[in-house]
Amino acid sequence: MDRRTPLGVxxxxxxxxxxxxxxxxxxxxxxARVTAVVDLDAERAEAAAAxxxxxxxxxxxxxxxxxxxxxxxxxxxxxxxxxAALLTAFEHDLPVLCExxxxxxxxxxxxxxxxxxxxxxxxxxxxxMRRYDSEYVKLKALLADxxxxxxxxxxxRHRNVAGPxxxxxxxxxxxxxxHEVDATRWLLGHExxxxxxxxxxxxAAAPEGVSDPQFVVLETDGGALSDVEIFVNCxxxxxxxxxxxxxxxxxxxxxxxxxxxxxxxxxxxxxxxxWTDRFAQAYDDEIQTWVDATxxxxxxxPSTWDGYAAAAVCEAGVRALREGGRVEVHMxxxxxxxx
Length: 339
Ligand SMILES: NC(=O)C1=CN([C@@H]2O[C@H](COP(=O)(O)OP(=O)(O)OC[C@H]3O[C@@H](n4cnc5c(N)ncnc54)[C@H](O)[C@@H]3O)[C@@H](O)[C@H]2O)C=CC1
Ligand SMILES: O=C1[C@@H](O)[C@H](O)[C@@H](O)[C@H](O)[C@H]1O
Fold this sequence. Notes:
The chain is of the alpha/beta class. It is 36% helix and 24% strand. It has two domains: 7-129 and 281-302, NAD(P)-binding Rossmann-like Domain (Rossmann fold); 131-276 and 310-338, 2-Layer Sandwich (Dihydrodipicolinate Reductase, domain 2), CATH 3.30.360.10. Bound molecules: 1,4-dihydronicotinamide adenine dinucleotide (NAI) and (2R,3S,4s,5R,6S)-2,3,4,5,6-pentahydroxycyclohexanone. (2R,3S,4s,5R,6S)-2,3,4,5,6-pentahydroxycyclohexanone (ISE) is lined by residues 160, 175-176, 179, 232, 275. GO terms for molecular function: inositol 2-dehydrogenase (NAD+) activity; nucleotide binding.
């Protein structure tokens, strides 16, 4: 595309994430503008379009994607709606940034991958934004330079203040641990081969019938272990921490010590309360990188394969949660397009 023309983006889904991405494209990143917004809830779509010059509001994603001023699509609808939006975007051969999860299960992720393979070129970047977080980027670089030796274990903690009311035990894995699944694969460069889920007694803050917290153990094909404490009703803050244990040392991120105060006989800092705060820089860099690559005619970042792999691992995790024991992950062979 002409480098002087901003990329026209249709944002599908204007709930919490979609509205934040609309703001980001409109006010933070360069080289793009929001030309259409879509939500099943017409009032939400209209509210998101209000005040943005030339932005139209729709309730039907297909109508928005057919518009002449739409060059690319950002999907931020709920997970089960992603597949239909992705397939429509492929019909128009439009580049897509799709929020995680790519789709909620491995079979639908595979259908999306097959449709992209039929196009013959990559079109999708999946919204695994931790790959753009400055702390995760530093950890990845440290592991890549080999100074600490081979990684043996990765300890992850993922805590939310309170899960949404519709969250089930399985969603702790498919919606939340999905991030650690991708971070583990990306940091270590391994595929995940088996999943075990252990459950302590539920917190009194967990809704009736929801297993929260959970302790998920991921085994990798490179012989490493990655464990994840997921606790979505911890009540006190939003914390995402990771510590890698290597042959010659350890490295840790996510302690949130950017400002520590000492006063009145106490010391301390603040804890972020949600992802829009903790990962603000990561979302900004993720969307800017997507816009820049799309304007160059390239697709970079987490691919449809990565979205499929995460879905397959999470599906094994949900089986392990329900049936107990260790469940192996089965995936199709990686197609050459994603190697
Ligand atoms: N990367 C990250 O850290 C985060 C990612 N997410 C992901 O972002 C996506 C959206 O999550 P939230 O904004 O929290 O949800 P939300 O429930 O606030 O918003 C979803 C919106 O999509 C709309 N929608 C549903 N089906 C639709 C369809 N077929 N066409 C058009 N609109 C449709 C709903 O009406 C709603 O307004 C999910 O995939 C979620 O997993 C959410 C939170 C953080
Ligand atoms: O993706 C996200 C949410 O969908 C999920 O529900 C939260 O647990 C995560 O922390 C957040 O990053």
